[in-house]
Sequence to fold (249 residues):
Amino acid sequence: MRKPIIAGNWKMNKTPSEAKALVTELIPLVKDANCDVVVGVPAVNFAAVAEVIKGTNIKLGAQNMHWKESGAYTGELSAAMLKECGVEYVILGHSERRQYFGETDATVNLRTLAAVKAGLTPIICVGEKKEEREAGYTNALVAYQTLIALTGLTAEQVKNVVIAYEPVWAIGTGLTATDEQANETIGVIRAAIRGVYGDAADEVRIQYGGSMNPKNCKGLMAQPEIDGGLIGGASLKAPDFAQVVNFDK
Fold:
């Protein structure tokens, strides 16, 4: 059985004082969760959040990471920097990174390899745009993005990676893939992993990440292929995020 994982992606929201208040409110609401709980926060919030969540079941996540250990990469953060701040998970290849900051399938792979080497758990985002779905390319595209991202990892390493299927047309739009659409596409992703890495595919946790919220989380999480959610807007309010985390209650 794969343990579900619910991760919040705060994006560019919350100052350190606001972050501290949010996780302080969240802790008692999710303390009995039957899933792994992660908050992916802006780097300026690492210290404040790490201090508050110490000793709880909430894990700290970052929203990006460079693949080099150090160097002339202004504005970037290395795996070692993240680890020393208490980060355990890192979101990689989010569609917003791809759209606004030149992220490519090749650089997602470099970041994934560096994260795994450093002992961080990558949450790798893959997904199609609206026109790509309408043209019938969804399955080919998500399979390709996934396998490129994992290139160079062993089957044993792949077992510990998290994939987040995020249809680009459903991020921040209020639109959501139907439960069946999400389950079907995540099944395609798992089949692609199985084709290269065999039974390791059965242990890879694959989230859904397109506008999952308190209203639709139960239906999505009831699907057999869906192992969690990467939550955007709903992760910025403790009661909303807690409802998603406690989807099974």
